[in-house]
Amino acid sequence: DSGVTQTPKHLITATGQRVTLRCSPRSGDLSVYWYQQSLDQGLQFLIQYYNGEERAKGNILERFSAQQFPDLHSELNLSSLELGDSALYFCASSVGVAGGEQYFGPGTRLTVT
Amino acid sequence: GEDVEQSLFLSVREGDSSVINCTYTDSSSTYLYWYKQEPGAGLQLLTYIFSNMDMKQDQRLTVLLNKKDKHLSLRIADTQTGDSAIYFCAEAGVRNTPLVFGKGTRLSVIA
Is residue B82 less than 8 Å (CB to CB) from chain A? Predict the structure, then answer.
């Protein structure tokens, strides 16, 4: 158990809908990272927050947004969902802002039908 | 931009050694990491090496770094069926930039 929790574990929704994925980092970790894992694209970094502020942005679509709250939990919002958004979404956390030693949550499997 | 390449598949017999290779392009990489992903789970940090080291050993795991060729390898001695997983190489470039992951090598261990 990494100490990172993600909810929900599975999510099935229709195209055009909006969903919110939630992540609680390990106790004491200030950075939260979001990744998308799909068969064709591999593991793609989406976005990083550090202590409530956006720190780095990767291949995140404009339809996606995230935030980190004062209690350090984070939410990833995915809107106008398309079939191609079906993937595993991982959250990871690290102590500092430069996060090589990241601790991953179990992921949320999103299926868009 | 940075890129990390790995072969996609590796199959070994139980008890043999496994060697998983990785090449990266960012010469400013400071740390290089190996993560393991078991089926249905998130990634788990296995080990890492600082860029000024050539080798690091941790029980059955040996990491070799050839900085000149930008080549990293992970050797697993006495491979067990429980080692079957996807192994990701990742590099951290200049300070505070996010990790760049390879696509992962799926290791299958045959009993």
Answer: no
